[in-house]
Specification:
The complex is a heterodimer of chains A (227) and B (115). Chain A is of the alpha/beta class. Chain A is built from eight helices and eight strands; from the N terminus they run βαβαβαβαββααβαβα. In chain A, helix 3 links the parallel strand 3 and strand 4. The termini of chain A are far apart. Chain B has a domain of 77 residues: hypothetical protein PF0899 fold, CATH 3.30.2320. Chain B is built from two helices and six strands. Classes of the chains: A alpha/beta (227), B alpha+beta (115). Chains A and B meet through strand 1, helix 1 and helix 6 of A and helix 1 and strand 6 of B.
């Protein structure tokens, strides 16, 4: 018997591809968020709201992942920006290779934003780096406040948490304060935004947040150019 | 449930490693899995069994080293196990401590049959 030390990450191939994607996005000043939530929390509607606000010359493209159907791509394509569906055919998450393949034929240089909508799932997507700048986790008021504690791996890796469907607060037994407290238990410094994608409440802060991130990426790109 | 993809990735990585050693048969795979890796060790074992179905005799043994979440205090150096979500140092009460284990998802070693 021979023992061989391997000491290698199981997902090292995924991480290699994610690193290449991240380098290409950074070099071109593209801001790329990876949207994660349970099914039905409002990822697609948040993206629709965001695209609807963008002027037609905004340099944005969207990848949207689902196990089956291209319903989300059809919904998102109505706003006139390039959209591609990634149908995983059973897989419960996107991985870096799927993103790399889906980008084929698109020029990253012509983008300021690349939105990636993950498969609705609070567990598996957290293990797969897609080369994104941030994981944005959406939690809605029709779910329990204890979701951050039940899915700590996902919430702990979030660069932003969006609490959606605040318009339903009068009708559901959901405490915003408790939800925020639970988010902070697993991710003490994360920023939390409260929105309703139905009424539009709080979305101004979301747009501001997004624009700041994009400006940050553009700045980082020009800093690279100087060197 | 992405343990099936994880199990497949493990077998791919192991196969590539075994190739470097003349393609010897792998008898054992040692994995390191953190509490917050998002992977459930029992489900993962189930997936290895499913992938080995029909080939049980030659399937490698799987050893899983489960790593609980531990943080290290940068102020006093204490390493402590995390209970619930309390990250404060139990020794000097420093509020900010850094994770040292719990996120692992690694192939630690493999054992190969002698040619």
């Amino acid at each position: 018997m021979t023992r061989v030390e391997v000491q290698q990450k199981v997902l090292s191939e995924n991480e290699r591809i994610a690193k290449t994607l991240r380098e290409a996005l950074t070099a071109n000043g593209v801001y790329c968020p990876n949207f994660i939530s349970s099914p039905g929390a409002g990822k697609t509607l948040l993206l629709e709201r965001t695209l609807a606000l963008f002027p037609p010359d905004t340099r944005v493209a969207v990848l949207t992942g689902d196990i089956q159907t291209d319903n989300d791509a059809q919904r998102l394509a109505r706003y006139g920006f390039p959209v591609r569906q990634i149908t995983t055919g059973g897989s419960c998450h996107l991985d870096a290779r799927m993103v790399e393949k889906a980008l084929d034929g698109w020029t990253i240089e012509s983008l300021d934003y690349l939105f990636i909508e993950n498969v609705g799932n609070l567990v598996c997507p957290s293990s797969y780096d897609l080369g994104e700048n941030n994981k944005i986790v959406i939690l809605s008021t029709t779910e329990g406040e204890d979701k951050p504690l039940k899915y700590p791996a996902t919430f702990s890796r979030a660069g932003l948490v969006i609490l959606n469907k605040i318009d339903l607060l009068p009708y559901v037994p959901f405490s915003l304060e408790l939800a925020k407290e639970n988010v902070r238990k697993v991710n003490p410094n994360v920023e939390i935004l409260e929105v309703s994608c139905t009424t539009g409440a709080g979305l101004d802060k979301w747009y501001q947040w997004l624009e700041q991130r994009r400006a940050g990426c553009a700045q980082a790109k020009s800093a690279l150019g100087v060197v | 449930m992405h343990e099936m993809s994880i199990a497949t990735s493990v077998l791919e990585a192991v196969e590539a490693e075994a190739e470097k050693h003349g393609g010897a048969r792998v008898t054992k795979i040692g994995l390191r899995i953190g509490e917050w890796s998002g992977v459930d060790p029992e489900s993962l074992r189930f997936c290895f069994d499913a992938l080995a179905a029909g080939n049980e005799a030659s399937a490698p043994e799987i050893e899983i080293d489960f790593r609980p979440r531990q943080n290290r205090c940068p102020t006093c150096g204490t390493i402590f196990a995390l209970k619930d979500f309390e990250i404060q140092c139990p020794q000097c009460r420093a509020e900010v401590t850094e994770p040292v284990s719990g996120n692992e998802l690694e192939v630690a070693y493999i054992e190969l049959e002698e040619p």
